[in-house]
Write a structure and sequence with these properties.
Structural class: alpha/beta
Largest sheet: 7 strands, mixed
Order of helices and strands: EHEEEEEHHEEEHHHHHEEHHH
Helix content: 25-40%
Shape: globular
Mean pLDDT: 92
Strand content: 15-25%
Distance between the termini: 53 Å
Low-confidence stretches: none
Length: 340
Amino acid sequence: MKDKILLKENLVSFGNSLIEQYRLIAPVKSNGFSLYKPVGNASEICLDYLRPLKSAKEIFFPQNETLFFFNKKTQKIAEPAYDKKPTILFGAVACDLAGIAAQDRLFSAGAYLDSYYLKRRRNSILIGMACPEPGEMCFCGFFGIDRFASDIADLFFTPFSDKYYIKVNTEAGARLVESLPDAAAADAKTVERLRCENAEPKWDIPPLDELARMLAEGFEADVWDEIAQKCIGCAACTFVCPTCHCFDITDEAKGEIGRRVRTWDGCMFPKFTLHASGHNPRTKGGQRMRQRILHKFSYFKDNQGVVSCTGCGRCAEICPVNVDIREVLKQLGEACERKS
């Protein structure tokens, strides 16, 4: 499969050609920031922002989703109408693609597959977009994420000068760009030069291999209460996160007809672990903060083989009281050093 070139002036016409056959979702300007949204015309696509405010996870794992309808009298169920038109996600940055890869692992693991997630995911094509420069809150390179590539993207665009270099990774992607001109060796060298010129900065965070030890040793540490002092339990961090996947399921009914609904939930909510008995095993903010961090950097890694953080920095950016996950990891490291 040969890599391709698309002139920037032809991006709108390329996008509109996709809309003819696919449901196209891309970054769109919205109230001073951007969001991943369906577009009716490719002229709506906005690539001016570093990344959308929210991650791409809700494309395949919606914030609110009707799983099925039911009749209380007959006990019969019916699934909601499903749009079978394939989806193309265009312009997804590397941290969001890494988030989708983590969700893929979760929802397709074990004996019970999540058919609702997989139905959407298997009917999709991913087109990534490189980030030439990391933002102030970004630290994806800490996790080894390459801002100029992605293993799960069918196509990956890198912008430079007046064109996009398109890395073709799959046959599905190749079919979308087969009419475009082939990339030259000089174009590939330009991408590599950009990668070298925009090397990742150094972060004052304990290395990942040390984090596992620190988390194990620091389970009962006082530092969790110190870290959580500012947290107000709003869970905004979990809602913008590319990998957070907790949800609640409720039944709603009016008369004989009802529906079962899946809705995002968050471990930072004080009532997240409230039992029907009235007992809550995590009444303190420090306990909830510990669960969030351990899940991301310990439990998910043990169960799925990767950490559940992509370094997108959205959680720190949106937090109303400026809790920065990088500072949390740094504090944890310092606390473990003092203890030793």
